Amino acid sequence: FRHSDNMNVIIFVCMLALAAARPDSGYDRSSALDVVPILRDDRVYPSAAGEYSLDTETGDGIIISESGYGSGPDGAVETQGSVRFTHPGGEVFELTYVANADGGYQPQSAQLPVAPAFPHPIPQFVLDQIAFAATQDSDEYIKYN
């Protein structure tokens, strides 16, 4: 083989791999090409204090609103916002959130899953063990033992 023959083989193999990797016929190309208009896009870019905001609404009903300010410890930006959209089945999804130093990311939505209630009360001997373990970590326990 000459150098140019090797290059032709490499190019052929690459083209074959590219053709084999294309999406199958189940892929709906028409929906991938739909253009969704942006109806509103209001932004305030971050200031020196970290203050920013964005309000966006798309033609398909997605609404995103978020704002933040450097009010956290050491000027960390604390954020609050909301997201709203409609699932393909027609169900509206709404979520609000806060992200701050006190609790981290705290989402709230009726659509978020809720942990089930604990199935039974905690027995007293377990509560006693927890309290005893807490005293072992305290300074008083170390000081007197």
Automatic annotation (TrEMBL):
Organism: Hirondellea gigas
Protein name: Endocuticle structural glycoprotein SgAbd-2-like
Pfam families the record matches: Chitin_bind_4
TM spans (from-to): none
InterPro entries: Insect_cuticle
GO MF terms, alphabetically ordered: structural constituent of cuticle
Keyword set, alphabetical order: Cuticle, Signal
Signal peptide limits: 1-21
Organism ancestry: Eukaryota, Metazoa, Ecdysozoa, Arthropoda, Crustacea
